């Protein structure tokens, strides 16, 4: 065995030892460095570098303490078409970190596909060996080692990758919380590629713990990200303007694409097939999990929405009073949609509006009324609804409320009012919330219309058609109810003096007009103090609950003194009044009888006066 055969034998033995240790946990870089040192020691080479062929490029090899980011930033790579394949590396490494090299060795597999390259400063021992036929055998040995080392490395990487994918998929399948899914996605990718920047571009806002995302903005995103989002395929962009390489992986489910996972790597980074496959798989898994979570949330929202509509419908059919119904609707809207401010607005016959007492206090302010004016104008012009996510209404110089929803309350196709909800945050009310609001208002509109119609019919029943005063039967109900509650009050009976002469002298039409004038004057005086009813013919009764006798006397004096001036032709009235309290023990019949007796006294004492039952004398108006 000559010297060259001995060298080849020793190299084979050393390589065999390296092959026997490929299963250990050391990084591939360390094993290749050890291989490089074996080569240098065997041929007495003092300086050498090893490059690994990956993804159609020769990439410089670094030990495990050097990061991938520094690799990409500091060293040049060589493509398959580079002259390195035809001539020595020496001429192409000149002036770079490889300027020590004056020779090179391309290492190939059994199919002659490149695996790597050695750059080195050749020694005499190498020159002598390279001229022998043993060089071909040496290349085969080196090719075997590099091929096995790379395959073992790929198996190890794939095993870790798929284990990681399995763990992430297990997490995704165990939760219906979108924030947990997004956190798991970000954690998995950043742990796998710590030297890359990872960001999420989501098509819908996620209210969770993940802060590393932004809403996908078609107008401002990079073309590669938009392309990935629209096509559903992974895209890679060499972004020279930011000296980076971008990988955009669509977060895709079966029914749609929910965003883009964007990875930013240093300039000249080449993503491997394994990396692309991992990113694509984990993005798809996250997309499916997000879709399932979204459908789960949507189903629960639909169930809650249906429950809300059903409960509201059942409640609205319980013959509530209008104020009770509005208060109930307010509670439902505040709970379901969380507005900062809310109001119910109703129109009268003159198209003036009134604000329901159930509305929030903001709408009693001038700024609140300006919001109502603006919304009312839009609805009256024919808009079916107002749904502003970033409103331009600014009544006080500050955009305090940016999200506004207003929905009309209709009766037979005619708008009788509207509900308005406002929030300080822009885009606060979702379109799904808007649809639910519209459904609730449509269900409520008929009930509100029925209540208003019922109240109008009841008002017709309870009020005298000519004078618009309440009927005697309605007054009886109020007095009896008050006395049952053991409250105090004042009862007044009034008769128009010589009313027959008015009818005989001017006609019944004029007589009716006088009664209307008297009724209007009485209503102006008793508003907020009591109720008035047409007792019969020209007789009118007034009941002031919770009023004292002194307050009743003051009211009677105002009526006796004011009615002659409020009527044309002028007439006078006679009044009898009586106070009542639980201590008196009077029944309603006894209260009426005492008041009627006082009226009789006023008539007999000369009319145009009032008499308090039990007083020493009548009080005449002069």
Brief summary:
This protein is 48% helix and 20% strand. The protein has 622 residues and is of the alpha+beta class.
Describe the 3D structure.
The chain is an alpha+beta fold and 622 residues long. Helix 1 packs antiparallel against helix 2, helix 7 packs antiparallel against helix 9 and helix 10 runs antiparallel to helix 12. A hairpin with a 4-residue loop joins strand 9 and strand 10. The longest helix has 44 residues. It is built from 17 helices and 21 strands. Helix content is 48%, strand content 20%. About 5% of the residues have low confidence. The protein is rod-shaped, with a radius of gyration of 47 Å.
Radius of gyration from the alpha-carbon trace, in angstroms: 47 Å
- Helix fraction, binned, reads 40-55%
Q: Helical element count?
A: 17
Give the averaged pLDDT, no decimals: 82
The rough form would be described as rod-shaped
Topology:
Blueprint: H1 3-20, H2 28-42, E1 48-54, E2 57-60, H3 68-74, E3 78-79, H4 90-93, E4 103-108, E5 114-120, H5 124-130, H6 134-173, H7 178-192, E6 197-202, E7 213-215, H8 223-231, E8 235-239, E9 244-252, E10 257-266, H9 273-316, H10 322-337, E11 341-347, E12 353-355, H11 366-380, E13 386-388, E14 403-411, E15 414-423, H12 431-462, H13 472-484, E16 489-496, H14 499-506, H15 508-526, E17 531-536, E18 539-545, H16 549-566, E19 573-580, H17 588-604, E20 609-612, E21 619-620
Parallel strand pairs: 6-7, 19-20
Antiparallel strand pairs: 1-2, 1-5, 2-3, 4-5, 6-10, 8-9, 9-10, 11-12, 11-15, 13-14, 14-15, 16-18, 16-19, 17-18, 20-21
Helix pairs in contact: 1-2, 1-6, 6-7, 6-9, 7-9, 9-12, 10-12, 14-15, 15-16
């Amino acid at each position: 065995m000559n010297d060259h055969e001995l060298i080849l034998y020793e190299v084979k033995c050393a390589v065999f030892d390296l092959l026997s240790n490929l299963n250990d946990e050391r990084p591939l870089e360390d094993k290749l460095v050890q291989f490089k040192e074996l080569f240098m020691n065997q041929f007495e080479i003092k300086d050498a570098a090893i490059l690994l062929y990956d993804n159609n490029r020769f990439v410089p090899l670094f030990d495990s303490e050097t990061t991938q980011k520094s690799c990409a930033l500091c060293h040049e790579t060589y493509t398959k078409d580079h002259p390195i394949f035809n001539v020595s590396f020496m001429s192409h490494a000149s002036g770079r970190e490889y300027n020590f090299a004056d020779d090179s060795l391309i290492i190939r597999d059994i199919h002659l596909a490149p695996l790597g390259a050695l750059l080195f400063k050749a020694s005499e021992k190498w020159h002598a060996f390279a001229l022998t036929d043993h060089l071909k055998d040496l290349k085969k040995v080196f090719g075997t080692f590099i091929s096995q080392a790379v395959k073992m490395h790929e198996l190890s990487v794939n095993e870790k990758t798929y284990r990681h994918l399995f763990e992430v998929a297990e997490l995704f399948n165990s939760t219906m919380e979108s924030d947990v899914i997004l956190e798991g996605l970000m954690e998995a990718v950043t742990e796998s590629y710590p030297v890359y920047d990872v960001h999420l571009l989501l098509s819908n806002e996620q209210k969770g713990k993940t802060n590393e995302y932004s809403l996908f903005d078609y107008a401002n995103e990079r073309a590669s990200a938009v392309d990935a989002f629209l096509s559903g395929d992974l895209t890679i962009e060499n972004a020279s303007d930011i000296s980076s390489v971008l990988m955009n992986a669509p977060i895709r489910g079966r029914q749609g694409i929910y965003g883009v996972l964007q990875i930013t790597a240093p300039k000249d980074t080449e993503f491997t097939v394994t990396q692309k496959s991992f990113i694509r798989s984990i993005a798809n898994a996250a997309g499916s999990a997000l879709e399932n979570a979204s459908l789960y949330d949507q189903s629960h929202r639909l169930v809650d929405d249906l429950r809300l509509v059903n409960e509201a419908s059942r409640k609205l059919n319980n013959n509530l009073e209008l104020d009770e119904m509005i208060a109930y609707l307010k509670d439902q809207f505040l709970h379901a949609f969380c507005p900062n401010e809310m109001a119910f607005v109703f129109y009268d016959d003159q198209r003036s509006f009134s604000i329901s007492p159930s509305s929030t206090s903001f709408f009693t302010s001038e700024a609140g009324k300006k919001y109502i004016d603006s919304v009312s104008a839009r609805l009256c012009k024919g808009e079916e609804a107002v749904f502003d996510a970033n409103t331009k209404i600014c009544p006080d110089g500050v955009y305090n409320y940016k999200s506004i929803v207003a929905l009309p309350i209709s009766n037979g196709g005619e708008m009788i009012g509207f509900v308005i909800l406002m929030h300080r945050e822009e885009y606060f009310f979702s379109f799904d919330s808007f649809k639910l609001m519209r459904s609730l208002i449509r269900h409520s509109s008929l009930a509100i219309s029925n209540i208003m119609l019922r109240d109008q019919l009841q008002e017709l029943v309870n009020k005298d058609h000519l004078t618009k005063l309440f009927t005697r039967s309605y007054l009886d109900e109020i007095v009896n109810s008050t006395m049952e509650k053991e409250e105090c009050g004042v009862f007044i009976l009034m008769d128009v003096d010589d009313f027959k002469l008015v009818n005989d002298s001017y006609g019944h039409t004029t007589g009716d007009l006088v009664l209307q004038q008297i009724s209007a004057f009485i209503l102006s005086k008793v508003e907020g103090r009591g109720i008035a009813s047409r007792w019969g013919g020209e007789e009118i009764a007034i009941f002031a609950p919770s009023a004292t006798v002194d307050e009743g006397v003051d009211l009677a004096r105002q009526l006796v003194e004011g009615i002659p001036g409020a009527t044309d032709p002028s007439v006078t009235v006679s009044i009898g009044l009586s106070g009542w309290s639980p201590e008196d023990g009077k029944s309603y019949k006894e209260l009426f009888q005492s008041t009627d007796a006082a009226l009789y006294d006023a008539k007999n004492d000369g009319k145009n006066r009032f008499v308090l039952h039990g007083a020493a004398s009548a009080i005449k108006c002069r």
